[in-house]
């Protein structure tokens, strides 16, 4: 190519050595939301980094000001609790980063990564253990079961907003 133009790009290789390895079972999806205090404190990148380094795959991502209607649906199981109005007000007070993560046992592992709902009970090394001090500002939400993950994902994302793709390293994780 003497014209000085770059060589045409070749398609990425498909990891032939990994293709013959069995894939981990228990692939599932979970809903994770960075709450307004996590967004305001600039923790979006750190939280995404932790999930990526763990080996989970991000398949849905958006930042939005959640409506009160959406939040009332999302937290409908808490509607009779005295803190419900304050929770909805807090969650609608600023932008939220909504995400869907995919991987082997991502729901259970994600909950461990988040730490306890009350940051005072969270171990160092967890997201809440490292970045939170009070339960009313615990920066992150994560689905607690397959049923809640399915419900929450469908509340926050349309099927068209979720990406299905493979990563070369998936078979190695």
UniProtKB/TrEMBL annotation:
CDD domains: NDPk_I. InterPro entries: NDK-like_dom, NDK-like_dom_sf, Nucleoside_diP_kinase, Nucleoside_diP_kinase_AS. It catalyses: a ribonucleoside 5'-diphosphate + ATP = a ribonucleoside 5'-triphosphate + ADP; a 2'-deoxyribonucleoside 5'-diphosphate + ATP = a 2'-deoxyribonucleoside 5'-triphosphate + ADP. It is an enzyme of class 2 (transferase). It holds the Pfam family NDK. Keywords: ATP-binding, Cell projection, Kinase, Magnesium, Metal-binding, Nucleotide metabolism, Nucleotide-binding, Transferase. ATP binds at residues 35, 83, 111, 117, 128, 138. GO terms for biological process: CTP biosynthetic process; GTP biosynthetic process; UTP biosynthetic process. It is found in: Cell projection. GO terms for molecular function: ATP binding; metal ion binding; nucleoside diphosphate kinase activity. Belongs to the NDK family. The active site is at 141 (pros-phosphohistidine intermediate). HAMAP family: NDP_kinase. This is Nucleoside diphosphate kinase. One of its GO terms (cellular component) is cell projection. Its EC number is 2.7.4.6. Its cofactor is Mg(2+). Residues 27-164 form the Nucleoside diphosphate kinase-like domain.
């Amino acid at each position: 190519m003497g014209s000085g133009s770059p060589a045409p790009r070749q398609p990425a290789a498909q990891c032939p050595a990994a293709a013959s390895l069995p894939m981990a079972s228990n692939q599932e999806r979970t809903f994770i939301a960075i709450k307004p205090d996590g967004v305001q404190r600039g923790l979006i990148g750190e939280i995404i980094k932790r999930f990526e380094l763990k080996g989970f795959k991000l398949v849905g991502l958006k930042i939005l000001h959640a409506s009160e209607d959406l939040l009332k649906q999302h937290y409908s199981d808490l509607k009779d609790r005295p803190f419900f109005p304050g929770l909805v007000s807090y969650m609608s007070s600023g932008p939220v980063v909504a995400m869907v993560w995919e991987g082997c046992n991502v729901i259970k592992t994600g909950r461990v990564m988040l730490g306890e709902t009350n940051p005072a009970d969270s171990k160092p090394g967890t997201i809440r253990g490292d970045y939170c001090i009070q339960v009313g500002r615990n920066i992150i939400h994560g689905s607690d079961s397959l049923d809640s993950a399915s419900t929450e994902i469908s509340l926050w994302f349309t099927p068209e907003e979720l990406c299905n793709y493979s990563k070369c390293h998936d078979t190695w994780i």
